[in-house]
Structures are given as C-alpha cells and as structure tokens.
Predict the structure.
Amino acid sequence: MGFLSKLFGSTNEKEIDDMTNEKLKIGIILGSTRQGRVSPQVGEWVKGIADKRGDADYEIVDIANYNLPFLGTTDGSEAGPWNEKLASLDGFVFIVQEYNHSITGALKNALDSARDVWYNKAAGIVSYGSTGGARAAEHLRGICGELKIADVRTHPTLSLFTDFENGSVFKPQALHQDNMTAMLDEVIAWSGALKTVR
C-alpha cells in the first residue's frame, strides 16, 4: 500500500491518482462592488499571469454579480448561487482593497454568506491600498482561519502611489511578477493537498 493510501485510508491507488491529477479550479474573487472600482483591472492582471501557467483552470468571480443581501436581512435563499460557485472551486485568490484599515463590507458579507463550502481550501491574497493593503490582508487572514481556509504566506502588495496612475489605471511594477508566481505556486500546492481531505 502506497503512502497516500495509508494517509487517506484507501486501498484504491487509481482513485487517489485521479483525485490528485485532476486539474484544479481556482476562483479569483474581486472583493469590491463600488462604482469606479479598480479590482477588475487587478483581477485580469492576476488571471493573465495565472493562465500562462497551465496548471489550473482560473476564473474571475465577481461578487457584484451575485447581488448578495446583507446577512440576516432575508432568509438567505439568494445566497444559493454564490454557495454553488464556491463549492465548484478548489482554491481562491482574493483581490483585496483596503477601506478604513480593513476589507470592504461587500467582501465581508460575501465571506459570511457561505460556510462549509469554504472549508479545507487554500487562498492567496493580492491586496492594494496606500500601504499596499497590508492591514486589510491581515484582517482577511483572521477570517480565513475561522472559515478553515489555508491562506498562503506569499502576498503581493500593490501601492496606490506606484502601481496605479491617477489612482484609477492599474500599471503594476515588474517587481510584483516574482511574488505573483510564488503566491500562485503556494496556492496550487495547498489547493491540491487540501482536495485530498475534502
């Protein structure tokens, strides 16, 4: 019996191989819904880098498209499509904007509008703001822990002063490429590992 069979209590090596060799699905979650947001530009940049890797199926997941009501204001049935989308994914890259030293209310509501479908998945964080969005990212890490999301260490931080022209046109510096590559490496490794325990 091989190592993975012993670890996961299965004697079916083919079943384990199929599980570990199937292409992962990674959602790039846009964490802002306001008019004039720049998160779609950042998300497309991340997806462009990710797609060239060929190691997973990457897709933009825009929470603005799900019209989620504030948690507790309805019976929650509107969150069904959101939960279905999350359930179909193996991991995430959060595009995080810093508002008042934290994440947006829209992203917090989206996180809270699901539960079990987050469990045992991995996530990377790409943040931006006046200090690279670092404080928002740290708040998000605490939430990820409660939702059993394994957030990876490498964290590209984008500055409103050096990576955006006039605060509205995204022009990332070349130095972010290495961090993006390292972050995606970690997301893929952890997403694959966690898929075997779900």
